[in-house]
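ATP-dependent 6-phosphofructokinase (Oryza glaberrima), 567 aa
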Amino acid sequence: MASSHIILPPDDDDEEQRRLEEEEDEDPWARSGPPPAAPEHAVKAALPFSATCVRISRDSYPNLRALRNASSVSLADAAYVKISEGDFGYVLDDVPHLVDHLPDAPTYPNPLQDHPAYSTVKQYFVNEDDTVPQKVVVQKNSRRGVHFRRAGPRQKVYFESDEVKACIVTCGGLCPGLNTVIRELVCGLAHMYNVSKIYGIQNGYKGFYSSNYLTLTPKSVDDIHKRGGTVLGTSRGGHDTKKIVDNIQDRGINQVYIIGGDGTQKGAYEIFKEIRKRGLKVSVAGIPKTIDNDIAIIDKSFGFDTAVEEAQRAIDSAHVEACSAENGIGLVKLMGRYSGFIAMYATLASRDVDCCLIPESPFYMDGEGGLLQYVERRLKENKHMVIVVAEGAGQDLIAKSLSTSEQQDASGNKLLLDIGLWLTHKIKDHFKSKKMEMTIKYIDPTYMIRAIPSNASDNVYCTLLAHSAIHGAMAGYSFTVGNVNGRHAYIPFYRVTSTRNKVKITDRMWARLLSSTNQPSFLSQKDIDEAKENDRTANKPPLPTGLSHHVANSFDQSASSSSNSQI
């Protein structure tokens, strides 16, 4: 299969480059300086012999600014984008490999071929040409579209078991399943690949350079999956690319497993780029973690099923409280900073919810068709109601009423105001003005939900993610691993960090919710039109200018369907 690699040249004009970099938005992961482009020899090594190179000259464009503005992939990032084309509109959005910058790296037989547990497996190893499509619902004349490299063990590996020194780090907020992933990484490395040198990085990214490594063995992690949280500790921020890679290099680490959300995966991408710049033989494997299920491309993140199950318990409690009082209202706030998946799925699972509010669907409080009018009507009809609200919903309404300024946490996330508390006061004031008796109970189970151990379904999912990450790292790839349409795949870092998965309010799943709760949509025609436009561009990745017409069409087609299937 012929390949086509897009290479954007570096800017020779230092002054123009400096000026453009100053105008770019500050990147929280770039505190150690702008990410350097890969060395020229590394770019050349990345091209297979069958490749067709498309080199884009700066002279082809009126100015460099137009080229930069055409895509959010920087010139430095373009060297790491590997796009391969095939017949009938097939496009492989591939992940980096050690041979891209170490073409003479030796290979070794995979020890799994002699593993007794795999003796009955019909096919030991994944075929090198196996890929996973981003879009599975197609029409008769559809193009084959964008694919990702299939996860799984390869016949040849790029590390001998004795030479592997692996480290594991957890970053960001807590999530059910973190300890399960840690356990399965340790046990998988030890039992499948006979790796004995495995270390835990304590308290997030800063642990690389501010604390001692923790030795991990299958015995030391044997029962940690029964506990919530992370035995390694976690933190936000603390990312210093140069310090981290210096430490990796000094300690001889050659496999890095990074568990965290989109911000953490951005950090993993910066670490990979610095490793490649230095020409180190190191694989970087990202395992996406977000309780909100807002990471792009993948079907769902680990811990999500557990979170929905636990959220339903809180809704059940709110329903009991509401039913036990005259004009009782149970108000439950669930996690969902930018995406309302937990609120939506918990509402659908419960069937006791009368109104669900999420960040993706605007709502208003007063006037005809507003939330307060709906609450009043619902109480007159049923004498009780349950409201579920995602933490990121209605933030614009609170900001207007309180005239607050935006603040951020250590990871660069916007600090949210308490929508649950605000709604409680608004509803109380409304019914007080109407001289109507009511009782409202506000339940916030946020930290209870994220601190519990994962359920059986998530435990299995965590195991598969960990094993897929191990197989990919041993095979020399650097990537984020995830389930895409039911198959585990290796996804380029830039694809999971450039966009965010959100509930599509123009989708049938949201229509099912509205049908279940019988709530109004609270949407104007303008809101609906904007939602459709956002859906159209939601999963379209940032790509370098100069892609062929066929490749660009394939990405557009894959983006037109929901990557996180909402059925």
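Residues 71-301+454-497 form a domain with the Rossmann fold fold (CATH 3.40.50.450). The chain has two domains: 71-301+454-497, 304-404+415-452+504-536. ok done for today
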